[in-house]
């Protein structure tokens, strides 16, 4: 896939602060279907599969995704609406209210690649109980397969995003793209990405949002419809996954508490109070209280940028995340 940039596109290129919850649902199901387990995903897989109750809770969504999101060149874009960047609730609301015409068109395209069961017709006509049930199933799956591992996932993603931020600050947007050379090739003004199908994506001044993903593997993925807001879901670097993310994590939770440690993990790359609240699905007031405590402990610093309040982790906070706190002499 070749993504064509203009100067305006480079200026509008951004990196999301957190993974997209619905993309993570779809991509994590791919990981669970794989016969060969990669070492970095094995602890997560084994933990889920060790609980019959969890597996049962995931079953309905798993069956849906096995039909709607097969391993292959296409799955419907309505499974991963743009609104999910604002959180799981927003994404599921958008999915369940997808216009009938879009549902029908995307499912007809899916039918070109595989034979679909009869119950798909209920989705294609926008049957409200069926779409509501789909949303309920995807929420249940997320509660079992994604939410319990939020701190570990966010730590790994934050470490990767911090690297992207350094590339952007030191060398600009072109430095950001060049820094992703392990998964894509920047040949100005075109970004070449290994993909299942040969395609061209012309950004036309819209820019593109890079969304880090814990469960994406090997190559980035994007939406099938080039007219939708451009996004590229990319796999974070392997070194930032489980082995790195778990370093010192349990001790930190015991010291700070689950939510406050998750706030600190989120701030491994700078974020506003609103971004912290959105990432952790807590209220802005709760996010503000936690950042106040972390700031008073010297783990973060806070400054104002216009109307926003931006929090940045300190060297002491980074040391705590890495499990390497200095020893007093």
Automatic annotation (TrEMBL):
Keyword DNA-binding in annotation: yes
Q: Which InterPro entries does its entry note?
A: ArsR-like_HTH, HTH_ArsR_DNA-bd_dom, Metal_resp_trans_reg, WH-like_DNA-bd_sf, WH_DNA-bd_sf
Q: Which domain of life is it from?
A: Bacteria
One family name in Pfam for this protein = HTH_20
Keywords from UniProt, A to Z, are:
DNA-binding, Transcription, Transcription regulation
Q: Which SUPFAM superfamilies match?
A: Winged helix' DNA-binding domain (SSF46785)
Residues forming the HTH arsR-type domain are 250-325
Q: Which residues form a coiled coil?
A: none
Task: Read off the PANTHER family from this record.
Answer: ARSENICAL RESISTANCE OPERON REPRESSOR ARSR-RELATED, HTH-TYPE TRANSCRIPTIONAL REGULATOR KMTR
Please identify the protein, giving its name as recorded. ArsR/SmtB family transcription factor
Q: Which organism is it from?
A: Nonomuraea purpurea
